[in-house]
Structure formats: structure tokens, C-alpha cells
Model the fold of this input.
Amino acid sequence: MDIEEVLENAKKAFKITKKHFGNTVSFERALFLGWHCNLKEPCKFCYMSTQKDKIKDPKKARRRLESILAEAILMKRIGWKLEFISGGYGYTSKEINNIAEMIAYTQKCKQYLNVGVVDLDNINLGVIEGVVGAVETVSKNRDSICPGKPLDKIIDNLLKAKDLGLKTGITIILGLGETEEDIEKLLNLIEELDLNKITFYSLNPQKGTIYENKPSVSTIEYMQWVSSVRLNFPDIKIITGVWVDKIPMISPLIMSGSNVITKFPLFSVFGTKEAHWIEKEIRSTGKELLGTFTDVDVLAGKKVLGKTPYIEEEISISSENLKKIENLEEKINEKIESYILKVLKKIKAN
Done:
């Protein structure tokens, strides 16, 4: 890897991103439904793989609906789009459909799904913007790293989604043993699937997995993957995620072609010194930040953001799901207040 070449490509990618996406950067975050994965062979890097044998009743590892909808409301309030609806495997098509309907109705916008191979024939496509495939890695060891996620089935599902007029995306985790030569494989896959977006994550080594003591991806390597995608696909939405211990990666990734930042835990970091640092990293690139990670008045609903990445639209859902939302209104509001209180306590302690 030629570092000077990587930096030069990053400069070109930054200009291309500005041309196609303007001068803004926004936050996104996956909305998780629970912490149980019913795959017989979970992914080798995943936290859920360490919890699988500990969870005796999978239903108890699911989040309550009021908690999910409260988070969806607060994310919209602070200008964070949902990256996708996700969280393990093991939900029926009907369950996925009902949850997606209620989240879309609550947020007044369509949603992406990242819940495995989706039975699109039994999903209300009127609330779905797109489908994301958990490709995770294009390295030669993919089958052993992600044994429960056959790539051919993911590809078929994404192609079907495309045929139905939906947008598509994939997730890639860097730090799983990929090589520089694998970049070409990724570029070929993006072209084959005609993807609308790609989410990169840097590996966050989990205790109890084979990656526990492995190093994650370096900043320059991460930049190379991001800029390679941007240079070859100017119109694709590139979402990059790093953990709180890698905040300095943010500005180099934006300079390499990323236009959305993801991954950060919302309520445990909002308003803290780390959140202020994250915003500073973004603004240091000269970009305008849509959404907030620090304004408690916005989170509490005392102030409204002037500019967000949300575009509201009319969402039609079943009367049954509409009734569920109405019946949960009090619990949703209580959960919203508890999340805000959690943030205030964290800020005070910080």
C-alpha cells in the first residue's frame, strides 16, 4: 500500500463527494430489535455469538415495542436517520412487517431492513425504502467467519429487492482479515448489485470471540477502502462507523469520501465530552453537520432543529398496528423521558 497514493485518492474522493452530496455530513444509527440471534452458526466476530448459550428464553432478549418506538422518535428529533432496522435473526415475516410499519409511521418515512434474507412477498413495501445485506466481509475466509449467512442467498435477496423497486445496500466490517486485493472483489460486488449505499464498520473486538485480541483496521487502510468505493461509484451513499475509542478516524474517513457517520451508542454518549469531540471532528473537515449529538434542549423537545436529513412522507399502515401505537402512547412517552433522564445523568457524571 502506497500511503501517498491513498492520501491523493482521498483528496479526489473528497471533491467527488462534495459534488454529488453537497457539503453536509449526517449521523445515522441502526435501530436494534433485540440481542438474540437464532442462526445455528453465528458470525465469529459478533457479540451475539457470545450470548447465544446464555439466553434461555430468546423472547426475553427482545426489546419492548415502546422502547423501540421511543428511540425512533428521539432519533428523528435529534436529526439522526435510521441506518436500518436490525438486531439478530429469528423474527417472523409478520413480526418484521408489523415493527417496520410502526417505526415508519412513527418517523413518517420509509425504512431500510437489515434482518437477514427478507421474505419480501409478505412485507408492506409501502413502508420499506430498501434492504441491506449483511455481507460483512469479502475475504477468502468469509464462509468460516459468517457460516450462517450464505452470500448467494444475500445476493439473490438484494436482486429481488431491486426488481421490486427498492433501494439496496450492504454492510462490510474491516478488520476481519481482508487484504488490499479484496477491494476489487468489493467493487465488483457493488457493480453487480447496483447498490445505493454501503456501510463500513471497523471491527470492535468482542471478548469471548476469536477476534478478542486481534487489532482492528488502521486509519490509512480504512481510508483506502472508502476512497476506492467513492472514486468508482460517485453516487453511492457511504456510511462509516467507528467506536468511541476511534474518534480520530472520523475526519480522515470524511475526507476519504464518507458522507454519513454511524455506530456510536446514542444515550450513553449524547452530550458528553466524547460527543463534543465527535462533532468537532466532523466540522474540522469544513462540512456542515446535520443533526446533533450535543444539544440536550433538542433531545428534550424544547428546541427544534432547523435542518435535518429527514424528508417526511405519508405512511399507511394497518389499523391493527395503528391501534397498537395509540395504546402504547403513554408507555412510549414514559420511555422517552427515561432516555432523556439517562442522558442528563450521564452528562452530569461526565
Observations:
- The beta strands are 24-32, 81-86, 111-113, 128-136, 167-174, 197-202, 237-241, 260-262, 288-290.
- The chain has a mean pLDDT of 95.
